Amino acid sequence: MPPKKGLSAADKRDRMLEIFHDSADVFVIKDVEKLSVKKGIISQAVKDVLQSLIDDDLVHCEKIGISNYYWAFPSEASVKIETEVKKYETELASTKRRRVDAGAAITQHKAANPNTEERAEALTALNALKERHAKVQTELAAYRDSDPETVEAMRNAAEGAKLAANRWLDNTYSLLSWCKKKFAGRESELAKFFEENGLDEKAEYIE
Fold first, then answer.
1. Structural domain of residue 107, as residue ranges?
2. Domain holding 31: CATH number?
3. How far, in Å, CA of 120 to CA of 205, rounded?
4. For 61-201, where are the alpha helices, taking DSSP H only?
5. What is d(CA 106, CA 114) in angstroms, rounded to the nearest whole number?
6. Does pTM top 0.85 for this prediction?
7. How many folded domains does the chain comprise?
8. What is the pLDDT of residues 45-72, one digit of tens each?
């Protein structure tokens, strides 16, 4: 004999909600548990099922003193259902209107842009022009180094680099001169030090 199938979550919610609707009374948790077990809901699941109904605003809960009281009247359920039906009817009507508007826009677009042979040829020509434009842009990038403005910018940059190099050479010579005066008699040691650090006292200015 196959094992007895338990209640689904939806079945548990429906059966517990029946307890409230059939009695139209107010309960404490012990009453809910007792009546739920009679409906086939195991006691361990009662609190979770009850909380899910509260979260969905199908059952009300109010704390009075140290106890929580639970209730759900049939009239409230019908009002809630009617409100939801009206909401969905409004959304459906809005969706239908948008669908009609979209259909009209598509029809208008097709009428303004018929799939004629001339239109097909124009689209082909447009795509060819786009490909040609991309090719020309690639060729232009290859010749950009020869562009007068680019060449002038490179020339200015080179001139600035030359001035900076000569300025550093001036500073190097000034440092050499100061060191020779400061450490007179130790010229060979100075020469070795500058040579090891890449400073050449015979370096020439860049023309």
1. 74-113
2. 1.10.10.10
3. 68
4. 74-112, 117-142, 148-182, 187-196
5. 12
6. no
7. 4
8. 999 999 999 998 888 999 988 889 999 8
